[in-house]
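Hi support team,

I submitted a single chain yesterday and got back a structure, but I'm not sure I'm reading the token output correctly. Could someone confirm the output below corresponds to the sequence I sent? I've pasted both exactly as they appear in my results page.

Thanks,
R.
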Amino acid sequence: MSGRALRWMMSLAHRTSQPKTASLIIVRHHRVYADGESPIYRLGVGERVFAAQLELLGAVGLAPITVAEGVRWLSGARSGRRVAMTFDDGYRDNVTRALPLLERHGARATFYLTAGLIEERTAPWWDQLAWRLERAEVRKATFEIEGRRIRLELEEPAGRSRALVALEPLMRVTPELRQRRLESLRDLLHVRTEAPCELATWEEARALGGGGMEIGAHTLTHPHLSLLTPERQHAEIAGSIELIERRLGTRPRAFAYPGGDYDATSLAVAARLELEHAVTTRRGDNGPDARPLELRRRALSDGACLGPTGAFSRRLTLAELDGAFDRARGVEAAS
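Hi R., thanks for writing in. Yes, this is the structure output for that exact sequence:
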């Protein structure tokens, strides 16, 4: 039985109940794709699925709010729950697809911008990786790295997807080493062009600050923070805050750790910069005792919302939000 079918079966027995204490659910999104768009690295939801999510949340009295609003509510609430919505990275489709739908449904969200990449118009590393695999002139190759040999079969989409899965963990290294690996892959595959930057421009991003939306920072270049020195961590975090303030005229008080990677130094830097809240990729809800700089989130991808037939499932989506599958996934209890 597939994972989707198993979750569907489990959702049939799930019954939503109100938490005994106040609970803030933070939904984690990245992109909103045009329906039918199928990149090999899919980092988001389809437009129809996102619209269905907003319609469902509004219907059950949980129209999304910003993280700032959610944290303020949580500090004084004794019971009930709220849903905050977030978008990481700052892609153009956040402006062209997500924002109109949020406004149409009376919802709000927090958008975390990778300020340096937006400024330099540089594609994030995962987009560069996918571009190399999709634009390779060499259809079969062996990528040799640190004694490992990774066979790349790139004739078909399935092969490119398998190559992506094999190569992605090798990019979770320092920025300098990652760039060298991307350059080596580019040369090996005879890729002649660089990936376009699909992040919003500053002019486009300015629209996100309207309508009650919150702007947060997401570092300058999206590194794995725990691999950096304290000085570089400070430069990445503080630099993103200052650049967003210069370009958009608002100083972010919100932050998202790139890839959910952070350590004690990251927390100390966030506190020193007087950030009010920061989100991780740790799955779970946030209760009254949640640490503001280590807030948990729940991913709500296409697969989390679509039943066995491929149709949007209200029951499955609500079960995901309720954490019905946390135990099966081995998720630790939230604090």
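A quick pointer for reading it: The mean pLDDT is 92. Let us know if anything else looks off.

Best,
Support desk
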